[in-house]
Amino acid sequence: MLNPLDAPDAVSAAAEPLEELLDEGNHTPSVYLFPVVPVAGTAPGRDRMRDLAQAVYDAGVSGHRVRASVDPFASPRAWRDILRRQVTEGFMQPARRYADPRLRTPAEIRRTGELADGVADVIEAHLGPVRSSGDVGGPHAGDIGWRNLLLVTRDWATILHCGIQD
Questions:
Q1: Which helix (H) or strand (E) is 8 found in, with range?
Q2: What are phi and psi of 71, to 5 degrees?
Q3: Listed residue (158, 159, 133) closest to 38, CA to CA
Q4: Helix (H) or strand (E) holding 86
Q5: pTM recorded for the entire structure
C-alpha cells in the first residue's frame, strides 16, 4: 500500500486529466480529497461516521462543523458508482452538453468514466479498500454543484469532494 498521507496530492494529480476533459469554459470542475485521518481512536457507535467526518474537517482548514449524522450507503462501493455517474451523466458534465446528452460522444463518456475509475483506484491504492461511505455535508468553496463523500477504510478516513464552479 502507498503512503496514505500522500493520497490528497495523488488524487489531485490523477484528477487533472478528468477535470480538463470536463472543463469546457462554462464551469470549472474540481475533484480532490480533504486530509486523511486515522480511524483508530474513534468510538464505534451510531455517530461514528459523523465523528470521522468531523475529524477530517478538523484536520483541514475549513472549520466546518458536521451537524447531522452520516448514514452509510448500503454498498461499500457506492461511492465509486456515484463518482462515475457524476462525471458521465450528472452535474459535473459540461453544462452546454447537459441539456442534450447526445452531444457527448460515446468515446468521451467512456473516457470520463475511465478517468473517474482511475481516481477511485488511486484512493484505494493509498488508503486500502473503502469499507463504508456516505454523503456528508460540508464546505463547498462556492461550488454551484457539489458532493462530499466520506470514505472510510479499515485504518483511514477522508472526504472526496466533487464540485463545479462558475
A1: helix 7-22
A2: -85, 130
A3: 158
A4: helix 78-88
A5: 0.91
> Which residue is it, cell 473503502?
130
The cell for 129 is: 479498500
| Cα of 85 vs its chain's centroid, Å | 12
Radius of gyration of the chain (CA): 16
Phi and psi angles of residue 70, each rounded to the nearest 5 degrees, phi first: -110, 110
The secondary element (H helix, E strand) that includes residue 165 is strand 156-165
For cell 456515484, what's the residue? 82
> DSSP 3-state assignment of 160?
strand
The angle at the Cα of 115, spanning 79 to 137, to the nearest 5 degrees, equals 35
Tens-digit pLDDT string for the chain (166 aa): 689 999 999 999 999 999 988 887 667 899 999 999 999 876 666 688 999 999 999 998 777 889 888 989 999 899 999 999 999 888 888 765 555 666 677 888 899 999 999 999 999 999 999 999 999 988 777 888 899 999 999 999 999 999 988 7
Question: Do the Cβ atoms of 11 and 128 come closer than 8 Å?
Answer: no
